[in-house]
């Protein structure tokens, strides 16, 4: 998370130091998958129990989420087991 998604125009304004999330992932020795911005529409969807990406598929936040989900979805069962082991270690 490093930005704020404007609810009016969808532009993302970066409000935190650049690169902090990448640095943290590197320090934790985990892959950096992406940065999801603070998005009031995402919070509203969660509060209402609605699938944000389904109802806001054209938003910047949804595109970022899709980019993050893609490599995770591409993991096969063996990769998933390795990931679970590394997370529980
Ligand atoms: Zn705006």
Describe this structure in words.
- The chain is mainly α and 89 residues long.
- It has one domain.
- Helix content is 53%, strand content 7%.
- The chain is built from five helices and two strands.
- It has helices spanning 20-27, 40-48, 52-55, 60-73, 77-88, and strands spanning 3-5, 12-14.
- A hairpin with a 6-residue loop joins strand 1 (3-5) and strand 2.
- The longest helix has 14 residues, at 60-73.
- The chain is globular.
- The two termini are 25 Å apart.
- Residues 6, 8-9, 11 line the site of zinc ion.
Hetero compounds: zinc ion
Evaluate the radius of gyration: 15 Å
Question: How many individual helices?
Answer: 5
Characterize the biggest β-sheet: 2 strands, antiparallel
**Number of domains as seen in the coordinates:** 1
Structural class: mainly alpha
Overall geometry comes to: globular
| Secondary-structure element order, N to C | EEHHHHH
* Oligomer type: single chain
The rounded distance between the terminal residues' Cα atoms is 25 Å
- Count the E strands: 2
Low-confidence stretches: none
Key traits:
mainly alpha; two-stranded antiparallel ribbon; 89 residues; 5 helices; 2 strands; 53% helix
How would the blueprint of this fold be written?
Elements: E1 3-5, E2 12-14, H1 20-27, H2 40-48, H3 52-55, H4 60-73, H5 77-88
Antiparallel strand pairs: 1-2
Structure summary:
The protein has 89 residues and is mostly helical.
């Amino acid at each position: 998370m490093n930005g704020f998604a404007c609810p009016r125009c969808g532009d993302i304004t970066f409000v935190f130091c650049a690169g902090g999330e990448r640095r943290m992932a590197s320090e934790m020795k985990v892959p950096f998958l992406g940065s999801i911005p603070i998005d009031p529409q995402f919070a509203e969807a969660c509060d209402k129990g609605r699938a944000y990406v389904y109802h806001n598929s054209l938003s910047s936040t949804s595109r970022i989420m899709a980019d993050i989900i893609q490599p995770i979805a591409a993991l096969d069962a063996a990769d998933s087991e390795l990931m679970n082991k590394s997370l529980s270690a």
